[in-house]
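Async update (no meeting this week)

Hi team, since we skipped the sync, here's where things stand on the single-chain job. The sequence we agreed to prioritize is pasted below, unchanged from the tracker. I ran it this morning and attached the output directly underneath so nobody has to dig for it. Comments welcome in thread, and please keep replies under the output.
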Amino acid sequence: MVEKPGETGGKTIIVAREFRNPEPKTLKEARGLVTADYQNYLEAEWIKELRAKYTVDVKQEVLKTIK
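Output:
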């Protein structure tokens, strides 16, 4: 039994009618995860390139005025 969040004394019963062996996801099931991972990879590479190409100059007196 599992208690439902936000309810006092409420219980949920889960009945498993079938157990399946682990198997790889299909491309259709994994497409969103793969796309998100690739976008994260591209962003990380882009940031590395920008940091290598440009230097950051923080003007402390201006930074203090906006804090």
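Quick observations from my side:
The two ends are 50 Å apart (CA to CA).
The helical segments are 27-53, 60-66.
Reply here if anything looks off.
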